[in-house]
Amino acid sequence: MPPEALATATPAATRVAHRFVATCLEVVNGFRPPVQLRRHLDPARLAVLLPELARATARGALPRRRSTRPGVQLRRLRVCEPRATAIEAAAVLTGAAGRSWAMALRLEQRRGNWLCTDLRVL
After folding, report:
1. What residues form DSSP beta bridges with 86?
2. For residues 101 and 120, is the Cβ–Cβ distance under 8 A?
């Protein structure tokens, strides 16, 4: 680990990761179409990232019935900064019937925007 790496993240990095995970959950829960998340994804990695997002959606998918309560909720988020322009996070999610699962992700800052460069559904 480089000396400038932070085992924990700055408050700003934590907000960026939380906002990205919250947007992912809006897609997973059917409140937002997946196409709205594309602007947050690295265009060079779309072929890898979109199938992972689809896996997350399938894992949490129960047909939404006119409910405003999300089916998948964030239980815990751990964030670290391997360098100033990169954020890595692990999110523990709770879905239907109390089943837990996780997402691991990496966000990198490019031209002032944070883009997801890696997303894994575990």
Report:
1. 83, 108
2. no
Q: What is the tens place of the pLDDT at every residue in 74-88?
A: 999 999 999 989 999
Asked if residue 19 belongs to a domain, the reply is: yes
CATH of residue 43's domain is 3.10.450.50
Per-residue pLDDT tens over the stretch 27-61: 888 888 888 899 999 999 999 998 888 888 887 66
Q: What residues make up the domain containing 93?
A: 11-58+71-121
Number of domains the chain contains: 1
Q: Which H/E stretch holds residue 19? A: helix 11-28
The model's pTM is 0.86
Cα 68 to Cα 21: distance, rounded to the nearest angstrom: 18
The answer to whether residue 93 is domain-embedded is yes
Q: Distance between CA atoms of 59 and 39, rounded to whole angstroms?
A: 23
